[in-house]
Amino acid sequence: MPSGAELIRQAKEQITEVDPSEVHELLGNGHRNGTVLVDVREQQEFEEAHLPGAVHVPRGHLESRIEGAVGDKSARVILYCASGNRSARAAKTLAEELGYERPESMTGGITLWKDRGYEVDVPRRLTEEQRERYSRHLLVPEIGLEGQLKLLDAKVLLLGAGGLGAPAAFYLAAAGVGTLGIVDDDVVDLSNLQRQIVHTVDRVGMPKVDSAEQAIHELNPGVNVVKYKTRLDASNIMEIIEGYDVIVDGVDNFPTRYLLNDATVRLKIPVVSASILGFDGQLSVFAPYDGPCYRCLYPTPPPAELAPSCGANGVLGALPGIMGVLQAIEVVKLITGSGEPMIGRLLLYEALSTSFTDLKVRRDPDCPICSRDPESISDDELGVFPDYEQFCAAAG
Amino acid sequence: MSTIKIPPVLRPSTGGEREISADGANVGEVLRKLAEDHPATASQLFGDDGSLNRYVNVYLNDEDVRVLDGLDTAVKDDDTLVILPAMAGG
């Protein structure tokens, strides 16, 4: 019976070995000509560092996974491991048992590769705490590690820390959104607590942005909270919203909704929009130029008698809960690129009948805002937003 | 008879009804029947010239009637009309 060392020596005699310098040259000139680079080490070793562009097939799973990774058996396959032993045995298996025509093993493995000073990819990893905190996201394929890293990198702006903003803030913080901006100039009032669940009795009188920040950090201290204790208007909107990936619109008035629309179309920032009244809610995603904008759906605001506010007409406390959480879900979908976001669709939720109605929203070819090229809007025009305050004054 | 879904802001004008059935061969006829039965809705739906107010969206099933034939869009018995005004509450 040959020793292990003897088996490896024999394998190396029977297969083709390739020097790291040749592999480096192959990667460097960008013309790999169909060559596939396969890392046959264990998961943990691969995660620490691997050759750029390598696919991972642990040697223990070689037989079951190699055909998924390398479908073409006539392709040149360069295998590597830590020092060139495991990959030599793997190359022998590919050639003799799996019918691959050109398997090769890289001499000296990634150790020699690094000794030569060639670059490696060090994948981003979650900390142990993050791995545990987000484990249920990591388990769903639509999010996974890649999606979670996107969430951790994402910047989401919440307009309003009120009925809709409160549940959205909680779930987006819990989901690990890296930066949450919050715009609200109000302070917590006892009458808010019927629905605005980020706030508490002992924080009545505190600015809502401070109260929301406290709640977010109690849930997830890893979230970077950026507070804007101000009212969004034409003079500050561009400065505030620029740089955010997604905006959650939960504002309580028409002037700000129209202003937000125009500014986000200009900057091409998607808006997850919801509104509530009584027992009814509406939700849509306005993704500039991918779908309609707010003005395509509602060209003009209704007159005052048809546009009551929650303050004047009341709202079921749990209603913004469901609508704000739907907003949070749409944000996660946009960031991770999963599913079909509500672009070009409007969801109506009627709590009294428990019915959800999905309506189509089309782009208006004559839309005064999104039918134009954003670059065609000059800086001068940007500085002079139409005066929505006056335009919508009657709408309250 | 087609069904009209009444939004919260119009319910005071329909005696609190959330759904109303009305006859009519097209969207305009159905809405005018609604306005006839519930006169308080008339000025909220139609302008002085008889056209739909710009701030009122009307959907036939899931499609905006503006991209169909507007008030002339034919309506079948089991169709649902949704009257949808903008809401700003948050």
Shape of chain A: elongated
Would you state the CATH class of the largest domain in chain A?
Alpha Beta
Give the terminus-to-terminus CA distance of chain A. Answer: 89 Å
Which spans of chain B of ≥5 residues are poorly predicted at pLDDT below 50?
none
| Oligomer description | heterodimer
Secondary-structure element order of chain B, as H and E? EEHHEEE
Q: Which percent band covers the strand fraction of chain B?
A: 15-25%
Q: Which class of secondary structure composition applies to the elements of chain B?
A: alpha+beta
In CATH, the architecture of chain B is Roll
Terminal Cα separation of chain B, in Å? 35 Å
For the secondary structure, the number of strands of chain A is 13
Count of β-strands of chain B = 5
What is the percent of helical residues of chain A? 25-40%
Q: How confident overall, as mean pLDDT of chain A?
A: 91
Sheet-strand content of chain A, in percent, reads: 15-25%
What helical percentage do the residues of chain B reach? 10-25%
Query: CATH homologous superfamily of chain B - what is it?
Result: Beta-grasp domain
Account of the 3D structure:
The complex is a heterodimer of chains A (396) and B (90). By secondary structure, chain A is an alpha/beta fold. Chain A contains 18 helices and 13 strands. Chain A folds into two domains: 4-115, Oxidized Rhodanese, domain 1 (3-Layer(aba) Sandwich), CATH 3.40.250.10; 154-395, Rossmann fold (3-Layer(aba) Sandwich), CATH 3.40.50.720. In chain A, helix 1 packs across helix 5 (85-96), helix 10 runs parallel beside helix 11 and helix 10 (165-174) packs across helix 16 (319-336). A five-stranded mixed sheet of chain B has the order 2-1-5-3-4, covered by helices on one side. The model of chain B has no long low-confidence stretch (mean pLDDT 92). At the A-B interface, strand 10, strand 12 and strand 13 of A face strand 3, strand 4 and strand 5 of B.
